[in-house]
Structure formats: C-alpha cells, structure tokens
Amino acid sequence: MSTSPGNREIEIKLRAPDPESASELLLTSGFSIQRERLHETNVLYDTADRKLREAGEMLRLREAAPRSILTFKGAGIPGRHKSREELELDLSSARTFEQILSRLGFEPIFRYEKFRTEFGRDDSPGTVTLDETPIGTFLELEGDPEWIDDTAAGLGFREEDYITSSYGRLYLEWCSEHKRLPGDMTWADVAGR
Q1: What are the CA-CA distances from residue 39 to residues 103, 110, 133 (Å)?
Q2: Fold category of 5-191 in CATH
Q3: 26-51 tens-digit pLDDT
C-alpha cells in the first residue's frame, strides 16, 4: 500500500522474533490496529522470458478478502530504504483478470502467502504492518524516510537491522540457508519440503 507521495513506495522490513512480541511492541509504542489480521495470497506474474524480472519490475495479484488488488512495482532506487514506483488497482474479479494476463502472455511465476495486520497512530504519516510469513515474522514500515528512521529507532531497531529485500528474495535466501529447492512461499509448500 503506497503511503508516499507520487505513487512511490518507500519502506523497510525488520525481522521480528514472533507475532505476539511484535504486536505487543507496537501496541506499547502507541500504535493501534488499523486493519485486523487478514490472510493474503499473492501471485507474481511475468512473461516467459522474464522481462519484468530483468527490468527489476513486478506485477502482483493479491487477494485479501474481500479485496483483489493488482499492483505494478517499478525498478527500485538503491539506498537504505526500499524506494520504487507503486501503482495499485482494485479488481472486481481476480479470476477474470488472471485470464486477461494469460491472454497477454503473462504467467504465474511465484506464489506467496502471509497474514498481515496493519498498525498506525492518529498522528502518523506512515504505516506499520505485522507480516506473519512461512519463513518468519516481519514488521514493514512504510512512509517517508525520516518517519521510517524515527519509528524504527523508537521501536528499538538500528539502521543495520533494515531489510530492503522483497519477500521473494528473502524466500530464496531462506531456501539456501535451509538447503531446500525453491518453490512457492506458502505454508503448505514450506512445511511439505
């Protein structure tokens, strides 16, 4: 979800030990739940020759009941925060749009799922999400760079804790560390390997 001006996503991830302690940290730091815990399924699409991947771009179809959201993310700008163009569109039918993508030559290349809870503060220009994934728990801070840095510090994190990798990249690193062949980052796939 883009909270930055000009359709630019600026964010970092922070590794958390578990969902309970991460939620407690946010609540005791003055955040409140803005959007209750939801299960998300995400599918990344690309052409057979991986044109988007080569350009550092991404096309994602996310389903988080009752919403289906199409997201395009442009190539990232290097820095201590992840920064890239983000364009989103609500869809009335994910299944129909999957057919459109197929007709246009796009195919699903990676699936991942997570449970996401969104936190915020009334005076806050950014958001913090608590993401429970099959490879661990993460906090995602999204907003302007100063807010991200101040919020991360207020939560007890340092700049060296910042993660700017995508969940796809983190999953590949997890597979390498656990000596597993990559597949999809779903609970069934991770548990079944």
Answers
A1: 28, 17, 10
A2: Hypothetical Protein Pfu-838710-001 (2.40.320)
A3: 999 999 999 999 999 999 999 999 99
Total count of residues recorded for the chain:
193
Residues 127, 118 contacting (CB under 8 angstroms): yes
| pTM, 2 dp | 0.92
For a pLDDT cut of 90, what percent of the chain falls above it? 91
Q: How far apart are CA 139 and CA 149, in angstroms?
A: 13
Which of 81, 101, 77, 79 lies closest to 89 in space, CA to CA?
A: 101
- Is the Cα torsion angle 160, 72, 62, 5 positive or negative in sign? positive
Cα separation of 134 and 139, whole Å? 14
* 147-160 per-position pLDDT tens digit: 999 999 999 999 99
* Of the candidates 89, 96, 50, the residue with the CA atom closest to the CA atom of residue 72: 89
